[in-house]
Specification:
The structure is a single chain. Helix content is about 45%, strand content about 20%. The radius of gyration is 15 Å and the shape is elongated.
């Protein structure tokens, strides 16, 4: 299995774990970059500057390997992962719940 195939499979598993609430994404200093840490490595997903990219980083922050959305297949995997990571890092569901509760009080 080549590196791209491995990273695509990793990205799909990461998406499923993110959607299941098992991965805690955090904002980074860059507006469109989100990061999560596993015991051995960190992962960043970036949406800007485009194209989308996923990077595996060592404990010194160096990129060990990365996957960039330069084709339809890779974009199909990285776009939903980026959106899920962004929503988790920015606590979008909680914000929507609060706004809905506030609207319920006034509407």
């Amino acid at each position: 299995m080549d590196g791209k195939t491995k990273l695509l499979a990793l990205s799909e598993r990461l998406l499923q774990a993110t959607l299941a609430g098992k991965i805690a994404w955090e904002p980074s200093l860059d507006r469109d970059v989100f990061i999560t840490f596993l015991p051995s490595y960190g992962l960043t997903i970036s949406g800007s500057p485009s194209p989308l990219s996923l990077s595996v980083r060592d404990d010194n922050g160096r990129v060990v390997d990365s996957l960039t959305a330069l084709d339809v297949e890779t974009t199909r995997v990285l776009l939903p992962l980026f959106e899920a990571a962004r929503r988790k890092a920015q606590k979008a569901d909680q914000a929507i719940d609060v706004v809905a509760a506030e609207l319920a009080k006034i509407a």
